Amino acid sequence: MNSRYLNKLNPLNSIFGRLFLWFWLTTVVMIVCTAITVRQIIKGPELQTIPADEQQKLEQIAIEFRRKVEAGVFHNSRKMSRLVRMLSTRFDSDVVILDVEQDRVFHDAPRMPAPFERRFINLASAETAYGFMAADRLFFGPVNVEVAGKQYSIFNGRMIRFPMLQHRTDLFALIALSISGLLCFALAWSFTRPIKELRDATQEMAKGNLQAGTTHNTSRKDEIGELSHDFQTMSVKLNELLENQKRLLADISHELRSPLARLQLAIGIAQQNLETQPSSETTENNPIHLQLLERIEKEAHQIDTMIGNVLQLSRLESKAFEVHKHKECFPGCIEGIIDDARYEAKSHGKSIDTDFPEPFSLFVESTLLGSAVENILRNSIKYAQQRITISASVDQQQLIIRISDDGCGVPQQELSKLFTPFYRVSFARNRESGGTGLGLAIATQAINAHNGSIKATNNDKGGLSVAISIPIQES
Question: Within this chain, do residues 407 and 353 fall inside the same structural domain, yes or no?
Answer without folding.
Answer: yes
